[in-house]
Structure formats: C-alpha cells, structure tokens
Amino acid sequence: PLLIMGGALGGVAAIILPAAAPGFWALIGMAAMMGGMMRAPLTAIIFALELTHDVDAILPLAVGCALAHTTTVLLLRRSILTEKVARRGHHISREYIADPFETMRVADIMARPVDHLPAAMPVAELLAFFTDARAPARHKSYPVLDQRGRLVGMVARADVLRWTMTGWPKGETLGALVDGRGDAVIGYDDEPVGALADRMAARGVGRVPVLRRRDNALVGLVARRDLLAVRASVVREERERSVLMAFGRGK
Fold first, then answer.
1. Looking at residue 191, what is its pLDDT?
2. Residue 69 dihedral angles phi and psi, to the nearest 5°
3. From CA 76, how far away is CA 95, in angstroms rounded?
C-alpha cells in the first residue's frame, strides 16, 4: 500500500513538477513514501534503484527520501513499523534515540576543579574536617592526593563515622588510612559516560575521581547528580522539540 500510495501521489504531483521521463516522479514518490513512513531512507533508495536500474535517479531519490524521513521524524512519534506495537500498550517514545551515556565522554560532564584532601592530613584534623558543626557544608567523599598530586584513594564521611565507632586503623595520616585499600572506583576523562555509570552502579558509589589516562593526574570528579543531569538534558531537549512541533502544527 505504501508503494501504491507514494507512486500515485508522485504521478499526481508530476502535473505541476518539471517535466521528466514517464514514471520518474511516481518513482520518487514511491521511494519517498516508503523511506519516510518506515524510517528507512537508504533502504528505499536501494529498492528503487534495484527496481529500475536508473542510476541517474540517485540524487532525486536521495533528496526525496531525506525530506520524507525528516518530515516523519519531526511530525510523527513512531514509524509504521512500531505503531501497532505501541497500540498494544508497549509505548515507544523515541525509536532510534542515541544513548547519551554512550555518545558523551566523561570529560563532558565531570566537575572541575576538584576539591581534594592531602594524604599528609593528620587523623585529628580529618576528624574535625568532617565533624565540625561550624564548618561549611562538606561533600560526602573526597579524593586523597599525595605530595606529587597522585590519587591515593577516596575517603568518605561514612568512613570517618565508622572509624570513630569501631576504632581508627593504624596510621597517623589520611594517606596511611586509605593507601592500599584498593576499593576506589576511578574513571578516565576519555571513556564513555556509560562505562563509568555501570561501574558506579555495580559498586554503589556516588562520587568517582576522574583521571587523565596518559599520566593518571586527577582532572575531575563525577557524582550521581552529574549522571542525572545528562538524562535531564535529554528530557529537556525532547520537551522543547515537542513544543516546537506543537507550535508548527498550530500554524
């Protein structure tokens, strides 16, 4: 039915379009209808070429299918291939959406500069840092750096509270407390956000230090709110897109 309707519309439009070989505009209409409704413009172009072997029609076919595809993406929520699935209750909001966690790099969302604690900080000062009621609001965890600026580990408020209740481990400095624990989840600035989000979910951590791969220098920090901000940006873009489409239909 799509091919018949597209061909018929192309044949009717040929009355006002520039003169061409018989059936030319019907072919363009047929391919455009198929490529737009199925959201498969390349498939429609190849189908038309295999059907007619008319190589000279490649450019008009590409233009027609691209315009049809753009029109259906902007005006229709789903393609004809998934409309029936949606009517059965399996709603699909966007079929060919690109996962922002896979297209964005950690460097795009990480916070910088990074608040950190020195490995040489005495234990008493660390306790006061997290427990002083007069101090400004503290983060839940901090990366710990040595004198060379290398990451030693992470220390959290929960660690300090646990050590206060169960007894402090051996060592008089923060570096001695966290060095060698081997439980710090780290990220790299050039990796996809999705890979880091998976590690954070698997280990149940809320803040992760980000290193530069070539020299392992601390360059940023990613928190759960940064991951949520990525999702919020996608929702905002979709909402703005819907508003624009509604405005266009109203005109």
1. 92
2. -65, -45
3. 11
